[in-house]
């Protein structure tokens, strides 16, 4: 069964049940009120007769009774009077009736009785016939003794006719309400199903790869909340798709860069080997060729080791042996190692750090981080200045490495942590063997230490790296 019919059936069932309960209660209350009203009317008639129909000498005022019956003929109300011996005194006919014994006992005790039973009524020709009637008995006492009983009766069909009219009106109202309920439930169900269908169509669009879908999220019901969550999901999928595309582009670029980095030394080695095999290289150049092949081989080994190192760091396979040591001494040692390279580029290296500066880190990895950043600064700075600053921060050690090199654009800064990314693609084969893996490794190592690394750079002005390493107390 389709959802629209399920919704309609649900709404209609609730409405029909509610209408049925209300209708039955209304009919019940109306019926009870009709009988109670009838009983009160008959009681009032008997009370009036008690005051006027029987005279003080027990003489029955026949004219009064006849006039009242004539006035109430439209309701078919009739009166009977019985004496204390349960003998009918009015109307007096050859065949006299009596009050049933079970009621007579209660009447003698002073109880008025209202019942519905089969009773004899007087026809227009003066005969009796039985008919279902509403009967009211009123006993009249004087000085504690029963004088007479007044009986007022009205055929049930007169009251039932009014009740039937009410029931018919209720039934008509029930049918009209049910038809209105069907129409209303259809439109309500249709609206809900249309909203669900929009979600369904949006799901189909997403399944086909179209994440650019928009849904109406107005309202505060569950479907609106679901549409809002669905919108959040599509936004997330769009972002994921963009990220996947970016990662795929980076993967293709990585494969191309990796192939290029490995192809260059392999081509060099292969060319030299062919030259040696065919004696195309002069004898005096063979030693130099062998040294060149050794250097290119070492370069390939370093490239492979750096890739393996990066993957181990990225996947958390390395164990950092952190300890607190003298950071100023490390900075001085690295500067001494790079002085020659800096001099060849016309750069000057300076260190500005207090003598008691310490850092909590893995010694070898800390050296690797600072060395890579400083070497990178030398590669992109000609006849400039590279300054290393160290200081204590709030429960952490802070280091700033700045240069006056070529700088980077905003887009370049965003990508420098990617493997094989080159801010300056023309520097693919420098004497320092730049592979594009150094900063990617630096970023992972700093993250593993729980520290931070930030880059600020301006083209043709320079670049500044800011690093933090938290203290041991903070880590614990």
Mean pLDDT: 80
User: In order across it, which strands form the biggest sheet?
Assistant: 2-1-5-4-3
The CATH topology annotation of the largest domain reads as Beta-Lactamase
Counting structural domains, the number is: 3
Protein name: histidine kinase
GO molecular function: ATP binding; phosphorelay sensor kinase activity
Subcellular location: Cell membrane
Pfam family, one: HATPase_c
Describe this structure in words.
InterPro entries: HAMP_dom (IPR003660), HATPase_C_sf (IPR036890), HATPase_dom (IPR003594), His_kinase_dom (IPR005467), HisK_dim/P_dom (IPR003661), HisK_dim/P_sf (IPR036097), HssS/ArlS-like (IPR050398), Sig_transdc_His_kin-like_C (IPR004358). The chain crosses the membrane at residues 9-29, 170-189. It is an enzyme of class 2 (transferase). Residues 257-473 form the Histidine kinase domain. By secondary structure, the chain is an alpha+beta fold. Helices cover 55% and strands 20% of the residues. It is built from eleven helices and twelve strands. It has helices at 3-52, 62-71, 101-108, 156-207, 222-277, 283-314, 327-344, 363-379, 410-415, 438-448, 472-475, and strands at residues 78-83, 88-90, 113-122, 128-142, 145-155, 322-326, 348-352, 358-362, 385-393, 396-403, 452-458, 462-470. The protein has a five-stranded antiparallel β-sheet with strand order 2-1-5-4-3, sandwiched between helices. A five-stranded mixed β-sheet has the order 7-9-10-12-11. A hairpin with a 5-residue loop joins strand 3 (113-122) and strand 4 (128-142). The protein is rod-shaped, with a radius of gyration of 55 Å.
